[in-house]
Amino acid sequence: MNGLPENAKKRIYRALLPAALLGGFGINPVTWQGPDGDGHVVLTAKAETGLASIAVRTRADARDEFFYIELEDTSMNGINLNFILIRDPDGPCFRTDRDDEGAPTLFGAVRRNLAAEEQAMRAGLAPGQVCTGLRASQQALQHLEAFLVTSGHTAYFLEPLTYASAWLFERRGFAYVRGHKLMDDIDQEFQPGGRLHQALDGSTPFRQPDQWSSVRGRAWAIHDGILEAVGATWDGLRMVKQVGRHAGVETFQRAAY
């Protein structure tokens, strides 16, 4: 598909974008023109590569996109969902993506902005979130699956960035290629009497005693490195979604987000 002319690529890839989401910001889902004309939607799909991304901005000159999706072919003719971002451009944002010196935190994997993270946590965000979301992930994934059907794919894969995102993708029908046991162990150890529950000792704002009972609470504690208490790290998880099928996986039953 990436080797096709630009107009042909645009006709194919525009199926990835929910029309209602674009229309809500005055962007035509067919022409991709918005209040500023062209430039609201940027498709990057270079010929002879297996990578494609779409960025959508409320204004053509906006620095940040409110919707971004990146797909990649795998060597086994599969599809990786490398990244998906859906944020509210009018909602509150927190500088969790930059440290005090302005350097990228890479979602906290390399460095952290503790003050911004605490503000984001208290505002109800999960680790890795910079801004509040639009609650449109299910809609976006439905469009992705429709797109995959037209291109002959039956499944797609991703690597969850955080515990909260893994739980969210479980609810969207994903199963684990790697990491199911880790998720089960995390749930067991966060129960009263478990080692992770005991490590919620109030030593940091991200390790408060009541955090075991919610997805975001657990996610922030894991982001803070609490898995050291069980000799584990948040690494190597991989999930798969069969198109049109919900796997029924639930590693944190009856969870409050």
Main sheet specs: 4 strands, antiparallel
Question: How many DSSP helices?
Answer: 8
Mean pLDDT: 95
What is the element string, with H for helices and E for strands? HHEEEEHHEHEHHHE
As a percent range, the share of strand residues is: 5-15%
Question: What's the gyration radius in Å?
Answer: 19 Å
Instruction: List segments where confidence is low: pLDDT < 50 over at least 5 consecutive residues.
Output: none
Estimate the global geometry from the Cα principal axes. Answer: globular
The assigned structural class equals alpha+beta
Q: What's the total number of strands?
A: 7
Whole-Å distance between the termini? 39 Å
Structure write-up:
The chain contains 8 helices and 7 strands; from the N terminus they run H-H-E-E-E-E-H-H-E-H-E-H-H-H-E. It is α+β, with helices and mostly antiparallel strands and 257 residues long. The strands form 2 sheets. The protein has a 4-stranded antiparallel β-sheet, with no helix packed on it. Strands 5-7-6 form a 3-stranded antiparallel β-sheet, with helices on one face. It is globular and about 60 Å long. The mean pLDDT is 95.
Question: What's this, in brief?
Answer:
By secondary structure, the protein is of the alpha+beta class. Helix content is 27%, strand content 15%.
Keyword list:
four-stranded antiparallel sheet, three-stranded antiparallel sheet, 7 strands, single chain, 257 residues, alpha+beta, 8 helices, globular
Topology:
Elements: H1 6-13, H2 19-23, E1 41-44, E2 51-56, E3 67-73, E4 79-86, H3 114-122, H4 137-150, E5 155-158, H5 163-171, E6 175-178, H6 180-190, H7 195-199, H8 215-223, E7 238-242
Antiparallel strand pairs: 1-2, 2-3, 3-4, 5-7, 6-7
